[in-house]
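The material for today's practical consists of a large collection of protein records. Backbone structure tokens are a discrete shorthand for how the chain folds in space. An example says more than a description, so a record of this kind follows:
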Amino acid sequence: MSSKQLNYLTISKSGQHEIVIKKSRFICSLARTKTVEEAQIFIEQVSKKYHDATHNTYAYTLGLNDNQVKASDNGEPSGTAGIPELKALQLMKLKDVTAVVTRYFGGIKLGAGGLIRAYSNSVTEAAQNIGVVKCVMQQLIEFTIPYNRLDEVNHYLNENKILIDNQIYTTDVTIQIFLDLDQITQVKEDLINLLSGKVDFKKIDQRFNEIPVTNLNGSFANPVDG
């Protein structure tokens, strides 16, 4: 697995967010989608829900390396809707996301530049409002310690913000923790030193765990300046 595939950003859940620009309503619907079929189903669902809208434009990016992308202006001037939405998703480095931006025309024309800003900002604000998570590939590690070492091990794990998945209490304590792949060696060394070498590690499985991204403003800027 390449380093680029060890973690990626996506939205925390499906959701919607609306902005109003010069009386036009822009409703951005976002969904996590893994396949073209899932993206198309979502696009159709939103378009059906807002069948009376002036436009239902969309963009999606699928795969950790943007393997499949598509954008549609749905009747807006060419390049003013779908592509700005796609660029917004890509600038935020979001993966496996489909965006559908519904527009109800308010009677005031925005011009090409205004439309580009409106559609791109609609996607950016929706992602910020719904929330973004970092999906990190982690290894589940299991090790067993005596009860009298539990407090110092828990202190180490908490200090280093290591996710404890489970603690099993029998004659000893079996602890299961999730580690980023690039931190396994260091944490093992730390625990061996802490426990004076009296520890055996067992790898269980790997999976992507989701970590909320709290500093969104620092993570990505607005894709289009005013």
Notes: The beta strands are 7-11, 15-21, 24-32, 55-62, 68-72, 97-104, 132-145, 163-169, 173-180, 201-213. Residues 218-226 have pLDDT under 50 and may be disordered. The CA atoms of residues 88 and 223 lie 6 Å apart. The chain has six helices and ten strands.
